[in-house]
Amino acid sequence: MLTSFRGPAAIFVLASLAFAAPVAAQTVNAADEVEAETEGPITFSANIALTSEYRFRGVDLSGGDPAVQGGLDLAHESGFYVGTWASTLDDDTVGYGDVELDVYGGWSGDIGEGLALDVGVIGYLYPDAGPGDFDYVEFYSSLGFTFGPAETTVGVAYAPEQDSLGGTDNLYVYSDIGVGIPNTPVTVTGHLGYTDGFLTFTNDGDAFDWSIGAEASVYGPFTLSAAYVGAEGDIAPGAYDFVDDAFVVTLSASF
């Protein structure tokens, strides 16, 4: 199964995921999220989204139907953070219940001029799944670069061997980019990723995923994003095509 990666710097383009994060929390904590400023060393933020499909790493986890998503984050001025993010699923298609709940924690901060690091661990929980092992843990790390109006993130996520992964492991590497169009509220976004291991709906255990899109602040805390999302992988004849290309629209708000 392929599922999300969330974290304050991990999911940097909500349009590319229509799927939050770690990385980046999958999305939670995308570039379109504006953290609510509070006095003192603690920052609290919340986000909610309605997306036409829950796509994570290119894979359809909502059976082509809309999904409701949202999360909460608590960050300390030292850079340490904890958070949670959830999304509705399609149990008939995915088989892991109707809800995905991600719980994560880590550290993020600047390590140089225009360079940010994010490291952490995330647990993927499926509270209403049927009998069997579904919950698992993944470790993640990413580097973010800023060049004028462009922001680029490269990252890796690794899930070690676990019963819920069929006794195997999983590696995911990805790159995200967002380029703001001068004198407009629009940012053009792109994403490319590669999965090697258990967490994929393909026959051979590996798949590329990609997206290209745009996002814009539309009113107050609201952001509208649109992306063309897809993945390449070997699907069994007659099976549901989890990686069929799709145009995904997401309306999100951050507080």
Provide the CATH superfamily.
monomeric porin ompg
Give the CATH class.
Mainly Beta
- Beta-strand proportion: over 45%
CATH architecture label name: Beta Barrel
**How many individual β-strands?**
14
- Major pleated sheet: 12 strands, antiparallel, barrel
Instruction: Count structural domains.
Output: 1
Find the CATH topology: Porin
Protein name: Porin
InterPro entries: CHP02001
Organism: Qipengyuania pelagi
Keywords: Signal
Descriptive labels:
single chain; mainly beta; 2 helices; twelve-stranded antiparallel β-barrel; 14 strands; Porin; 56% strand; 255 residues; two-stranded antiparallel ribbon; globular
Describe the structure.
The protein has two helices and 14 strands. It has 255 residues and is mainly beta. It has a single domain, classed as monomeric porin ompg (Porin, Beta Barrel). The chain has a twelve-stranded antiparallel beta barrel with strand order 1-4-5-6-7-8-9-10-11-12-13-14. It has a two-stranded antiparallel sheet with strand order 2-3. A hairpin with a 2-residue loop joins β2 and β3. It is globular, with a radius of gyration of 17 Å. About 13% of the residues have low confidence. It holds the Pfam family Gcw_chp. Keywords: Signal. InterPro entries: CHP02001.
